[in-house]
TrEMBL record:
Keyword annotations: Aminotransferase, Pyridoxal phosphate, Transferase
A GO molecular-function descriptor: transaminase activity
Transmembrane regions listed in the UniProt entry: none
Gene3D superfamilies found in the cross-reference section: Aspartate Aminotransferase, domain 1 (3.90.1150.10), Type I PLP-dependent aspartate aminotransferase-like (Major domain) (3.40.640.10)
Natural source organism: Novosphingobium clariflavum
Matching Pfam families: Aminotran_5 (PF00266)
Database matches in SUPFAM superfamilies: PLP-dependent transferases
Domain Aminotransferase class V: 57-302
InterPro entries, alphabetized: Aminotrans_V_dom, PyrdxlP-dep_Trfase, PyrdxlP-dep_Trfase_major, PyrdxlP-dep_Trfase_small
Source taxon at top rank: Bacteria
The protein, known as: Aminotransferase class V-fold PLP-dependent enzyme
Amino acid sequence: MSHPRDLFHVPAENGAYLLAHSVGCQPRAAAAALDTDMLAPWRQAGGDAWPLWLETIDGFREQVAALLGVEPASVAPQTSVSAALFTLLSGLSLAPGKNVVLLSEQSFPTIGFVLAPLARLGLTPRFIPAHEDPSDPATWERHCDGAVAAVIAMHVHSNTGLVAPLAEIAALARRHGAVSIVDTAQSAGILPLSPTRWGVDAVIGSCVKWLCGGPGAGYLHIRETLIPALAPLDVGWFSHENPFAFDIRDFRYAPDARRFQGGTPSVAPFALAAQGIRTILSIGQEQILANNHACIAAFEDECRQSLGWSNRGGTLCLACDDPQALSQILKTADYAHDFRGNVLRASFHAWNTEEQARTLARFVKQAGMVITPAR
């Protein structure tokens, strides 16, 4: 391998692919993993493929555990971040007067959408206004009190890149007897993850972005000592202590995170996602992050402007005054990117180079843009 880029199928071959924050590039090993772990057992064994397919699911749990530095027994596969959050919150036992879920308006919208129907269970969202900085511990301190049952924080905010103070949020939640939950969809695969060091109770995430695992595979990690206190409503036969007991009158929660797994699992997404994580870990997250920082530094140097990116994630989130003009220049140059309102989002992953970052900066200057870090 001459460059980590060689491990991926990279679109925008004549330009630059800067959309790791949306959909990571497909690993070249993904097709073989899909065949080995899902298609070949089906082709060769039919209904007897299930033991091998369940090994694939367990392999995914092991890869996520390695990514997070936790035990596989604390990890449950999920179809999405939304599914993970719903099944987790549905399992809370609410004390009288303690039913508030605290989150920032800067959270990804699906977080708020999940909370809306959970009002039927008595949960009430409390939104920190979008103009208040979610990277400042004092912001969370102002809005948390004894009525809060759960606190949900984005590790990295998708439209600004701001990083939440997770250890401080977890400590605040503990003081108020609340469960702390972290969404790592925009950080897994680029920033170090350590639920144990943070002291958080749960982690939810997706594999489609920086982890290059494709859509349909998410994960839920629960602190092991908390698991027995949670009784999720969204269950299936794989949530059972013994999925093969087949007694319709006898449901018992699995003792570990499998209680959140639900019904018959989809195998293909987890086969692909496990390979995505293996690819990222084989390169080394430290190397990917170092390349990301080097690219951002090259962008700053070419722009002759310091962006102050020390407490941000891997995606440049830059507010600009004429997004349509800049977007047209980038599209013409085959520089894959996106905008959220007037905010340019561009991510540097293992397949990107410092020269691509400098070229992006030259396009910004060509468009005559005034750029500032999004807030």
